[in-house]
Each structure stands twice: as structure tokens, then as C-alpha cells.
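Recap from last week: sequence in, structure out.
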Amino acid sequence: MKNSILLIILLSFLIKVKAQFVTIPDANFVTWLQANVPSAMNGNQMDTTSLAVTTRTIIDLQPTQLDPNPPAILNYFGLQFFKGLITLNISTNYSATNLPVLPNSIENLKLSGFPSLTSLNSLPNNLKNLNVYLKITTLPTLPSGLESLTIYTQNAFTWPQIPSGLKSLQCSQSG
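Predicted C-alpha cells:
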């Protein structure tokens, strides 16, 4: 019995040692994370090794009927730690100027709004579906496995090389 208790204490200590916390700088993103991955959060610190972070497959940061005007997230630092993420949807009318490098696991990416965002970092390697409704002027290199691309932009646009396996392409420009 005494050995079992000692083993439990030792294991809990090792688990805490493995935890890696990062500070999430955006208070509104902290609020979203606290509501959606509470076991990974301690104040504005997120445990990047938490299963709630590493195994989450969908993040949807878009207005809804219940919350048509969600708080402004201006800094998305922390998204890059969601290594199991498959679908990411972000819609905002606020002035975030960049996104972190996104996890390569993402297959479906939808970005809309972002009035100050004019370019994107590199795109995830596993990306299959990209929907972009931004004031972008260029896209980075498109992943070779991209199957569907939808672009709506208000600016003059420079095309990257289109992957040979692309099955669907929709583009419109206004301005």
C-alpha cells in the first residue's frame, strides 16, 4: 500500500514535470480557451502537452446565432500547439495582422474577415480544402495535396502555382 501511494505521487510529479506552459497574450483568446479546453488552462497559461490541446480536431472561431459579435481576438498565438487539429474556421472583423504558423495536421482551413491581414504564412502540408475571404494580395506556396481552393479578395491578386491535383477552384474579386 505504501509503495502504491509513493508510485502515484511520483507519477503525478512526472506528469507535472512534462507539462509545458505558454502564455497566451490575447485576453479574449484566453477566455475562449478557458471555455473550450479548460483542463489545459491555468489563468492565461496553456499546457501545450494537454490532451485537450493535442487531440482537439476542430476549432471554430466564427460568429454564431447565440454569439453574433464574439469578443475581438487580435492575437492567435497558441493555435500552433493544437497538433491534432483537422478543421480550423476563423471569421473576424477585427484587426489581427497575422496568424501563427499553423499545425501541419490541418486539412480544412477557412479564413474570413481580417481587415488588416494581407498575406498568410506557409500553409499546412496536409491542407486539402482552403477557403479564403480576405483582403490578401498573395498566397504562399499551395500544398501539393490541395483539392479545393476558394478565394474571395478585394485586392489585386498574384497567383501561386496551382497544384496539379486541384479538383475545385473558385475565385472572385471585388474592389
